[in-house]
């Protein structure tokens, strides 16, 4: 039952899961036991029980035309899209059931936004959700079961539901009575015991010589005791109590075999007599019912003929009015078609008129506007300034080029004079 289920945390399940502190780094390492993989099946079963307590079948499934959940619906992957839609629908219904207003998600909503809204509502209830939201996109798994289980618990708290201790019925001590069914012996059991006794006697076979010796000894002892008077030492009251105690066990009942053909024949005769007696009574009732129905049908037929005769002229007037109405409808449809066609033409002409007006306004504004002329003047002055600047740069470049040429020419003449050898120097050699 869901009352005995432990509280499940999203990061680790308590059943078969233990935490240990990591050495050095101080991180928490989750050690999952062998039963942790199956704990979500237990949580899913508890969730189904809680949903039944919340009457989700009447309030949710019938209104939205949904199928009821199985015991392991969110624990095993079947259809991820259907499971995710069912998860969002259930979560929204549980949040509303817990007292928080929440819009029902639609089929084409963003799944990331829906999951974030559900997790925010879960944290608003004081529950932890330290796992990535992508774990809920698949629509199944331990995190899905955990979220729905937490929301179901909050809904149960909101409606004031509390788990009570189980009330065990007090078992009354029955008196020891001897059951007649167990005490009665059937004929088959008597035959079986008789056969067993015969087999035991055959197995415990005694030699004839030994038997003769024993009988001789018994005869000698009885002959020695014949002179004594036999007296009973048993109390009569004890004897009667023992007889009453043993009497139910001495009954022998022969049970009838249901497979006997005679019993079947007797049953057939009994059923036949019962059917015949019931048929006589029901046949009278059916005849009376048949007569009443036939009389009622005759009355209905006569009334129908009378009504048709009385209302024949009204029926003709109604038919004529129907014909006139159909003709008026046809004329109306034809006129409506002409109106729609003319309305379409009017809209087209209006659009063309708007276009022409817009073009005329643009041309008029361009003719009266002096902005283009101002722009032209500004561009001309700018061109003149750029022309003057270019002339100055050209003059500077020409002057620089002339200087470089003059300098090059002076260098060439100097080099030429330096290479000429004087004649006075040649005569001394």
TrEMBL record:
The record ties this protein, via InterPro entries, to: Intra-flagellar_transport_57
Keyword set for this entry? Answer: Cell projection, Cilium, Coiled coil
Q: Which Pfam families match?
A: IFT57
> Where do the record's region annotations for Disordered lie?
1-25
Query: Where would one find coiled-coil regions in this protein?
Result: 308-366
UniProt subcellular location: Cell projection, Cilium
GO biological process per UniProt: intraciliary transport; non-motile cilium assembly
Mind naming one GO cellular-component term on file for this protein? Answer: microtubule organizing center
Q: Could you say which protein family the record assigns here?
A: Belongs to the IFT57 family.
- What protein name does the entry list? Intraflagellar transport protein 57 homolog
- What are the leading ranks of the lineage? Eukaryota, Metazoa, Chordata, Craniata, Vertebrata
């Amino acid at each position: 039952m869901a009352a005995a289920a432990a509280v499940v945390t999203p990061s680790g399940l308590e059943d078969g899961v233990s935490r240990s502190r990591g050495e050095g780094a101080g991180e928490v390492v989750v050690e999952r036991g062998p039963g942790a993989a199956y704990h979500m099946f237990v949580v899913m079963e508890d969730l189904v029980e809680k949903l039944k307590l919340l009457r989700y079948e009447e309030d949710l499934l019938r209104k939205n035309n949904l199928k009821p959940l199985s015991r392991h619906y969110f624990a095993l992957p079947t259809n991820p899209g259907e499971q995710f839609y069912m998860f969002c629908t259930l979560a929204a219904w549980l949040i509303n059931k817990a007292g928080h207003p929440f819009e029902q998600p639609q089929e084409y909503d963003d799944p990331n936004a829906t999951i974030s809204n559900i997790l925010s509502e879960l944290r608003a209830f004081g529950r932890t959700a330290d796992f990535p939201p992508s774990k809920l996109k698949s629509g199944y798994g331990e995190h899905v079961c955990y979220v729905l289980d937490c929301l179901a618990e909050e809904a149960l708290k909101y409606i004031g539901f509390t788990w009570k201790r189980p009330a065990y019925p007090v078992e009354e001590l029955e008196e020891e009575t001897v059951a007649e069914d167990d005490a009665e012996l059937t004929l088959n059991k008597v035959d079986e015991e008789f056969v067993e006794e015969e087999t035991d006697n055959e197995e415990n076979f005694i030699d004839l010589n030994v038997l003769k010796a024993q009988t001789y000894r018994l005869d000698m002892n009885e002959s020695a005791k014949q002179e004594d008077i036999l007296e009973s030492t048993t109390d009569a009251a004890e004897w009667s109590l023992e007889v009453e105690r043993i009497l139910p066990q001495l009954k022998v009942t022969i049970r009838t075999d249901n497979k006997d053909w005679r019993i079947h024949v007797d049953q057939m005769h009994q059923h036949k007599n019962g059917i015949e007696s019931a048929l006589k009574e029901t046949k009278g009732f059916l005849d009376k019912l048949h007569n009443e129905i036939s009389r009622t049908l005759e009355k209905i037929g006569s009334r129908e003929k009378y009504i048709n005769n009385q209302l024949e002229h009204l029926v003709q007037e109604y038919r004529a009015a129907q014909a006139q109405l159909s003709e008026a409808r046809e004329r109306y449809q034809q006129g409506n078609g002409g109106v729609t066609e003319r309305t379409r033409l009017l809209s087209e002409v209006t659009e063309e008129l708007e276009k022409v007006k817009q073009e005329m306004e643009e041309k008029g504004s361009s003719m009266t506007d002096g902005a283009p002329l101002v722009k032209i003047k500004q561009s001309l002055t700018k061109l003149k300034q750029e022309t003057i600047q270019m002339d100055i740069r050209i003059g500077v470049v020409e002057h620089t080029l002339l200087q470089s040429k003059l300098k090059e020419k002076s260098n060439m003449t100097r080099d030429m004079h330096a290479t000429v050898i004087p004649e006075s120097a040649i005569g001394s050699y």
